[in-house]
Design brief:
With 378 residues, the protein is mainly alpha-helical. It has helices at residues 34-43, 46-50, 69-87, 91-100, 109-121, 129-140, 154-161, 186-209, 215-221, 223-235, 241-271, 276-281, 291-309, 312-334, 341-346, 352-362, 365-376. Bound molecules: magnesium ion (MG).
């Protein structure tokens, strides 16, 4: 099959002129459409810049070459744009959604999220990175004179909420406006798949680079990689192992991306999906890999869990973070006056645990370590 970048949006793409708009109406911009403006606002936000100092899997202790959350985000944007181009989806919306998809992550990624959630449960509350991201773009970013937050369009805010999970409308009445009973447009569905491809490939790459994973381990544990590696081994037998590894990993990514494009295109055609309304009302997500590739993905993930994420060295790093977050949380709960003045001000209107949690969640890894050293002698 030949691929080309669709010159026109497909009938099932989200058209910018159909946007449900912004919370605070604004006049149109002379030469940027609403989704381009959203993308640019995200790019210029403080939360976006903080991604540079947030861990993906490896902390800076290992090397400067490893992904952090900013480079991961850019990789998700690249994959998403490619798929959007091939499917005729709205790439402006896709790019905005990709750039914003991880801004709600606390320091040290999923570990940080789990710790904060556990601490919040003690107060009958919770922490969730999608909800935190929504608060960032709606309230915490203070940048514009006319409105709080970034005043993003409905579809970008909806995409934030529908990233990688769904919310029960009875449990989250405050999210009612986000059409919880419906699927998000294909542009938002795409982000979850691109996210998974990006981190699976990146973690294999960084895992190999860190020497915590070897080529032998990867070939034994990831059948897709092994299959693609075999012809490369023959063809580039005299090349350094690292280049052969790169060639195979490149093909892994290509296989996963091509599958998503083909599978989605076939599915949409077979089901006769020709509008956003049909996408929204379909009972399942439509941008998903074929079952065979979904299984391969699952194998990669399981392998990474077993061999990389639970590696003693990675675990030891994680334990330090857990301790720092827990102890700082308790410290600020006891000493709210040690919070920055504007943050302390919030404790007069909101529960202290919420304010402390949001404050910690907004920190970069480095800032967290600095605060820990300052208040608790780190
Ligand atoms: Mg991500």
């Amino acid at each position: 099959m030949r691929y080309w970048k669709a010159r026109h949006l497909a009938s099932y793409a989200m058209r910018v002129e159909k946007t449900q708009g912004r919370r605070f109406p604004e006049p149109p911009h002379p030469y940027r459409n609403e989704y381009e403006r959203d993308r640019d606002r995200i790019l210029h936000s403080r939360a976006f810049r903080r991604l540079e100092n947030k861990t993906q899997v490896f902390t800076r202790r290992y090397s400067d070459h490893f992904r952090d959350r900013l480079t991961h985000t850019l990789e998700v944007a690249q994959i998403s744009r490619t798929v959007a181009g091939a499917l005729g989806l709205n790439s402006d919306l896709v790019e905005a959604l990709a750039l914003v998809h991880d801004v709600g992550h606390p320091p040290f990624g999923h570990t940080g999220e789990a710790v904060l959630d556990r601490l919040m449960r003690r107060y009958g509350d919770r922490f969730d990175h999608n909800l935190h991201a929504l608060h960032i773009v709606e309230h915490f970013e203070q940048k514009y004179a006319e409105f709080p937050g970034l005043n993003l369009t409905f579809e970008v805010r909806e995409g934030i909420i529908k990233h990688s999970r769904s919310y029960d409308p009875d449990e989250f009445p405050e999210l009612q406006e986000y059409r919880l009973g419906e699927q998000p447009p294909l542009e938002a569905q795409l982000i979850d798949v691109a996210d998974e491809i990006a981190y699976n490939c990146a973690d294999l790459d960084d895992g190999y680079e860190s020497k915590l994973l070897t080529l032998k381990l990867i070939r034994e544990g990831v059948p897709l990689f092994d299959r693609l590696y075999r012809p490369i081994e023959r063809r580039y037998a005299s090349m350094p192992e690292k280049l052969r590894f790169n060639e195979a990993l490149k093909r892994v990514m290509d296989t996963l991306v091509t599958d998503v494009i083909d599978a989605t295109r076939d599915r949409l055609k077979k089901l006769g999906v020709r509008s956003v309304a049909k996408v929204r009302s379909y009972p399942q997500r439509l941008v998903v890999p074929r079952p065979r590739l979904a299984l391969e993905n699952k194998r990669v993930k399981e392998f990474l869990f077993r061999r990389l994420y639970s590696h003693p060295e990675v675990r030891a790093e994680r334990q330090k973070i857990v301790t720092a977050l827990e102890r700082l949380f308790q410290y600020f709960m006891k000493n709210p006056r040690s919070l920055p003045p504007s943050t302390f001000g919030r404790t007069l209107r909101e529960p202290v645990h919420r304010v402390v949690c949001d404050y910690l969640a907004g920190m970069t890894d480095r800032y967290l370590q600095g605060r820990y050293a300052k208040h608790l002698g780190g």
